[in-house]
Amino acid sequence: MGVTQIREKVDVCVVGAGHAGCEAALACARMGLETVIFTVSVDSIALMPCNPNIGGSSKGHLVREIDALGGEMGKVIDKTFIQSKMLNKSKGPAVHSLRAQADKAEYSRAMRKILENQEHLTIKQAEICELLWEDCEKEEIILDTSMEGNEGKISESRKSGKKIIGVKTFTGAVYECRAAVLCTGTYLRARCLCGEAITYTGPNGLQAANYLTDSLKNMGIEMRRFKTGTPARMDGRSLDFSKMEEQFGDKKVIPFSFSTKSEDVQIEQVSCWLTYTNEKTHEVIRGNLDRSPIYAGVIEGTGPRYCPSIEDKVVKFADKERHQVFIEPEGLHTNEMYVGGMSSSLPEDVQLAMYRTVPGLENCKIVRNAYAIEYDCINPKQLYPTLEFKEIHGLFSGGQFNGSSGYEEAAAQGLIAGINAALSVFGKEQITIDRSEAYIGVLIDDLVTKDNFEPYRMMTSRAEYRLLLRQDNADLRLREKGYHVGLIPKEIYEETRKKKELIDQEIKRLKKVIVGATKEVQEFLISKGSCGLKTGITMAELICRPELSYDLLEELDAGRIPLPEEVIEQVEIEIKYEGYIMRQLRQVQQFKKTEKRKIPADLDYNDIKSLRLEARQKLMDYRPVSVGQASRISGVSPADISVLLVYLEQYQNKL
To answer: How far is CA 114 from the centre of its chain?
Structure first.
C-alpha cells in the first residue's frame, strides 16, 4: 500500500505558539479566517521561560497598545497576576509604566483556554520543517499608513519573487495556506548552555525546532544567531527572607486592559523581595570566568546588551560593589522563586557557590539551573513595516524570530503580523503604525530600519514622541485602527469616541471658567499651598499649577459635572502638559511630511550619482518605503536625504 499523506487547506498558518504566535493566530481567526497554530508542545503555549512578569518600563506601554488594537495579552495578565505595580510614579506621565508579576502556569493555561475556544482557530502540536512556495509574477501591493481615506496609502510594485502556498510538518503532513506567520521565538536550532554542559533543546528543556532553518535559507532568507539567558529558580523554603527587603504591590491596582473593570483587579497580592550581590559573589564569578561559555568562546550568538548576565555585569561594571537581585514567586501553587538580575551560563557548581554568597540565599536549593540559550532568527531588514517579507508574498514574521527580546515586544509584533496576514488574504490594504502613533510603531520601525546586531529591547528613550505615546491614552490613539480591521467591537469603539468627546468638552469648559480673586478664593489657594491671585484666571490655568489638581479645585468649580476617573486623568494631563504636547504635535507634523514622501520600490539608487557610496549601498540594501524611513537608516546622512529629495522631484516630473 502507498503512503497516504495528510493534506489540509486553511487560510493562515501560524508557526509557533509563544506570545507572538498567540496574538497572530487570534487576530487572524477573529478576522474570520480559518487559522491553524503549530507548536512543538501544546504545554508551551504562552510559556514564560524567563521572568514571569508582563509590562515594565516601556513594555507596559506596548501591552496597553496591544489591548487598544484588540489583542489579548492585557486581558490575560489582568486575570492571572499576583502582584502589580505602576513604575516611575515619581516622574511624569510619559514614563509611567505598569508591571505585573504573573502566575506563570495560570497565564499559560488562561491563554491556551482562549485559543482552544476561539472560533476558526485550530491548535496543532507539530514541528514545521519546511515552507512551501512558488514563484510569482510582479504585482501591486498596497501598504496603508493611515485610516484617513486614501491619504497615506503606498501603492508600489513588488519585484518578481516567491509566494507562500503552505507548510510541511516533520511527519509529512501538508497544510496549504494563503499566508503564513513565523513566530518561532527561541526554538530554531536552539541549544542551552550551562557551563560545559550543552543540551540541544529549546527553553525549559522543550524540544527544539531543528529543520526549518534550512528551508528558510533555501528561500533566500538571511539568518542570524542570537542568544539570551535566564537565571536559576530556587525552592522558596530554602531562602531566608528576613535578610531581604520586602517589595509590595500597589494598594490600588490599575488594570492593563481598558476592558477590565477596576474592581476585578483589587486582589490580595503576594510580596516580592530585594537583595544584593557583594564582593564575595563577584570573586566567585571572576575566579570561574574561564568556565563560562560566554567568555570561553563556546557561544556563537550575540546577547542582549540591556539584559546582561551576571558575568557580564561583574566584568563590564567592575567598579560596582553590588547588583540588585529580585526574588519573585513563579506562582501561587509552587514554591519556585525566580532570581531576577542573576541570569548566568556558568557551570552548576559555580552557580550554587555564587548564589549562596547573596544575603538570604546562603542555604538556597536550586530547582532549575540558570542557562544561556542560542537560537536562529532573521535579519529584520528583510521585512516591510507591515512585517511581511519583501521578497516573499504572504509570509509574515513576528517576535524574537525578528531579532527582538521580551514577551511584550513579541506579542506586539505578532498582533501586527497577524492583522496584516489576514488583510493580505482578503486583498485589503495592510496597516502600518508609525513612530508618532505608538510604541509598537517605534519597535517595528527600529527593527526594519536600523542595524540591529543584538536582541532588541523596547525602552522609553527610543520613543521621540513619548509625551504623546503615554500608556494612559493608548485607547484614544489606537482603538480606531483596531475597529477598522475588525478586532474591536463597535460598542467598545463608540465608548472610546464618547470618552474622547467628554475629554475635549471638559478641557474647553475649563478654559472658559473664570476664577475671580475673591477673599474666599485667596484663602482656599493659600490653604492648598498655592499663591493667591492678583486678577481672575481660568480654571485651566489653576490646574496648571504643580501643587494643584483637578480634584483639589472641585470646591471652586460650581459648574462641574461628575466624570469618569479615566476622563479626569486625561483632562488633567492634557492641561498640565499642553505646551509640551503642542510642541511634540508640531514635531509630528514635520515627521509626517517625510513619511508621506514615498519612494518607488524599483528605484535604482545607483542612478543617483550625487549620493555617497555608503548611502547608495544602504538604501539598496534596506529598500525604504519613504524618505522618512530612509533618513533613519544608519549610514544615510541628512545631506544624502537632500540629494534624494531633489532626485525624487526630478523623477516624479519625468513620469
So the answer is: 21
C-alpha cell at 322: 553590588
Give residue for cell 522558596. Answer: 236
- 252 and 84 in contact (C-beta within 8 Å)? no
What single DSSP character describes residue 239? -
Say which residues have a Cβ less than 8 Å from residue 312's Cβ, sequence separation at least 6.
Answer: 294, 303
Let me know: does 167 contact 156? Beta carbons within 8 Å.
no
The one-character DSSP state at 568 is H
Distance (Å, rounded) from C-alpha 626 to C-alpha 619? 11
Sole residue written with cell 496574538: 23
> Rounded to whole angstroms, how far apart are CA atoms 522 and 538?
14
pLDDT in tens, 504-526: 999 999 999 999 999 999 999 99
Q: Rounded to the nearest 5°, which phi and psi values hold at 132? A: -105, 135
Helix (H, G, I), strand (E, B) or coil at 194: strand
CA distance 367 to 387: 39
Query: For the segment 64-98, what is each residue's pLDDT rounded down to a tens digit?
Result: 999 999 999 999 999 999 999 999 999 999 999 99
3-state helix, strand, coil in the chain (%, to 5): 40, 20, 40
Q: Which residues are CB-neighbours of 523 under 8 A, at least 6 positions away?
A: none
Q: Which residue has the cell 502556498?
A: 165
User: Which residues lie closer than 8 Å to 149 by C-beta, 6 or more apart?
Assistant: none
Strand residue runs (E) in 137-268: 139-144, 153-158, 161-169, 174-176, 179-182, 191-194, 197-199, 223-230, 233-235, 245-247
Yes or no: say if 408 and 168 are a contact pair by the CB < 8 Å rule.
no
Which grid coordinates are listed for 467? 509625551
From residue 240, how far is each of 43, 220, 267, 625 by CA, in Å? 32, 54, 26, 57
Work out the mean pLDDT of the chain and round it to a whole number. Answer: 93
How, if at all, do strands 179-182 and 336-340 pair?
A: unpaired
What distance in Å separates the CA atoms of residue 438 and residue 433, rounded to the nearest whole number?
7
Half-sphere exposure of 131 (CA within 13 A, CB side): 29
Residues 463-491 pLDDT 10s: 999 999 999 999 999 999 999 999 999 99
Residue 557: strand pairing partners: none
C-beta neighbour count of 1 within 10 angstroms = 3
pLDDT of residue 138: 54
- Scanning the structure block, which residue is given the C-alpha cell 490600588? 252
For the record, the C-alpha cell of 131 comes out as 515552507
- Main-chain phi, psi angles of 477, to 5 degrees: -80, -35
Residue 289 carries which DSSP code? G
CB 272 within 8 A of CB 83: yes
Give the C-alpha separation, 250 to 266, whole Å: 10
- pLDDT (tens digit, 9 = 90+) per residue, 306-355? 678 999 999 999 999 999 999 999 999 999 999 999 999 999 999 999 99
Does residue 275 contact residue 243 with C-beta atoms inside 8 Å? yes
